[in-house]
Design goal:
Layout: E1 7-9, E2 16-17, E3 20-21, E4 24-25, H1 28-38, H2 40-46, E5 50-54, E6 60-61, H3 63-85, E7 86-90, H4 97-115
Parallel strand pairs: 1-5, 4-6, 5-7
Antiparallel strand pairs: 2-3
Length: about 120
Amino acid sequence: MQSKDNIINLEDFRVKEGNRISKVFTGRDRGEYVRKHSNIDQIEEKYSEITVIIPKNVYSINPSFLEEFLVHVVTKLGKENFLKKFHFISEGDYEFEIPLNQAIDRILKNQTALDK
């Protein structure tokens, strides 16, 4: 059974301007903001499973956002353990698997390049 403390709902981090609400998550700066304000790194240390909810009517999450959002947890866990621990749920029809895998692979590639 999950508590609310191990759920990160990206709805909480959508950019709102007046009546308009963003339908994209993009850019390293935004990813860093969400990483810091969602406390993903601290949540990862406390829980064996974490759920990330992608709100309905989101139509794009680009890998650069995901890279910065997930950099520490992916680096710590590696791809296989990350995918076992983190569960992504799309409330709409956005297919997140390709950008998520691209981001994970880029994070790990950059880590390996930096280690050499």
